[in-house]
Specification:
With about 90 residues, the protein is mostly beta strands. It has a single domain (about 1-89), classed as Efflux pump adaptor protein, beta barrel domain (Elongation Factor Tu (Ef-tu), domain 3). The protein is about 0% helix and about 55% strand. It has strands at about 1-10, 15-25, 35-40, 45-60, 65-70, 85-89. Strands 1-2-5-4-3-6 form a 6-stranded antiparallel barrel. The radius of gyration is 12 Å and the shape is globular.
Length: about 90
């Protein structure tokens, strides 16, 4: 399943948190610990990550579940505000 990235911010441990809006139909499958991959147009490879938490509530305006995904960013290549697609497995 895929979802679009909404926002991001850096963490002290060198990772970056990406907030992803997951369509409501996929919400029951999303949980902490689930593997995720970010697909960014500026990188050839998908970047692995992991679901940290969800809002545990569907946004009634967008019919999406806000989901937080942590991905490694030790070299600082992932910049806040960039666009990505998230793939959950």
């Amino acid at each position: 399943m895929e979802a679009l990235r909404r926002s991001s911010f850096p963490r002290a441990n060198g990772s970056v948190a990406r907030f992803v809006s997951v369509p409501e139909t996929y919400a029951p499958s999303i949980h902490a610990g689930l593997s995720a991959y970010l697909d960014l147009t500026q990188f050839l490879a998908k970047i692995p990550g992991q679901v940290v938490r969800t809002a545990e509530s569907i946004n009634t305006a967008t019919r999406t579940l806000l989901t937080e995904v942590d991905v490694p960013n030790h070299d600082g290549a992932l910049l806040p505000g960039g666009y990505a697609q998230a793939i959950f497995r």
